[in-house]
Amino acid sequence: VVTEGVNGFRFPLEADGTPYADAVQRLLAQPDRYRDACMAAFDHYAANLNWAVAGRRIVEIIARRTGERAR
Question: Whole-model pTM?
């Protein structure tokens, strides 16, 4: 999930390359903001978008559906 200005940028599907280039230029001009966005994206990945998290969620869903406790 992209949170505008926090861990990335969102653009309309019909956007040409200009808004993308503008966003890259803004980040290149602000290295601290770029670093913060990179870390926010990584933190979101680490908390939500990896196989360990996906596996835990699947185990929890199966446990709820079968009435068993998740390990």
Answer: 0.66
